[in-house]
Specification:
There is one protein chain. By secondary structure, the chain is mainly alpha-helical. Helices cover 52% and strands 8% of the residues. Strand 1 and strand 2 form a beta hairpin. Helix 2 packs across helix 5. The radius of gyration is 13 Å and the shape is globular.
Length: 104
């Protein structure tokens, strides 16, 4: 997967927060309820629907998460290790990154 593809996946804050939460949880497999990623943003019904029908399927398609729809939890997917270094860089530099991007 190219860097552009990884950045595209991380371009949405809900997907980014979910993956960051998984990256900070060890050991694998540690379950995470997707609703926890939304709660940080004050997740409303519209965001919950988008998470269920857009964001989680996209992360599954890329292999970054495994999603148990019945139990409503996610775990690290088979390709999570491909995006984890980028998540680490973002996490370690979050104090200099803003919502508008990297400062000049």
């Amino acid at each position: 997967m190219t860097l552009d593809e990884q950045l595209s996946v991380l371009s949405n804050r809900h997907r980014r927060r979910l993956l960051m939460a998984l990256a900070q949880r060890t050991p694998q497999p540690d379950r995470l309820a997707p609703s926890r990623a939304l709660a940080a943003d004050g997740g409303d019904e519209e965001q919950t629907i988008a998470m269920q029908h857009v964001h989680l399927p996209k992360l599954v398609d890329h292999g970054f998460i495994d999603w148990d729809q019945d139990a409503q939890h996610v775990t690290k997917g088979p390709r999570f290790d491909e995006i984890e270094p980028l998540l680490t860089v973002l996490s370690e530099n979050q104090d200099i990154l803003t919502d508008r991007g990297v400062p000049d």
